[in-house]
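ok so I'm stuck.
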Amino acid sequence: MAVRVIEVHENVFNTNNFMADQLRKELSDKGVFMLNVMSSPGSGKTTLLSKAINMLKTDYKIGEMDVDIESSLDAQKVSDNTGVPCLQIHNGGLCHIDAEMTGKAIIEFEKEHGDLGEKGFDILFLENIGNLVCPAEFDTGAHKNMMILSVPEGHDKPLKYPLMFSICDLVVFSKMDTKEFFSFDEELARKYILELNPKARIISLSAKTGEGMNEFCDWIRNQIKK
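replied:
not stuck anymore, here's the structure
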């Protein structure tokens, strides 16, 4: 008996993409800019965000949501260091967070801290789970995506994880104060990234010394103006 073959061209991520577009619109209608921050574990996401929030919070009302498999350590650290409203998201052991999960987390955030629009929030940081593969595949509904490449990880990461670097609007080289201790070729890393993503903005910084932090915060300010 002949077997019938059908072709299915629908993107398996279509449902998530639709929900992400809806969430993005809802946030825009409330005047909130959401930034999705991705990286591998240990790149310095929490430290960088804490530093940036403290530099921005006098001009903007800011919230932060942190994704981890277990514990509330990072969200608590941001809260303790900055004083801004924070929410810890446990994603059930998954390697990513998608638009539906992000939307549910925002609902919980608003239950605790009030409607984002009515309370005048300007910025919502989403500190994604530490992973260079899965988070790149799922649109969270954020307005912009950024990822952090720390100096100790090496300059070849764009070659190993091309999708992550391809979908990010901003790439941050972090821990630049450690550059003398590692074989990190900054120019080569830039070359690899721009070959994958010619429109990517690249900023080198150190949250510890403050190098490049003004440039990073100015980038955020410019996104809010758009």
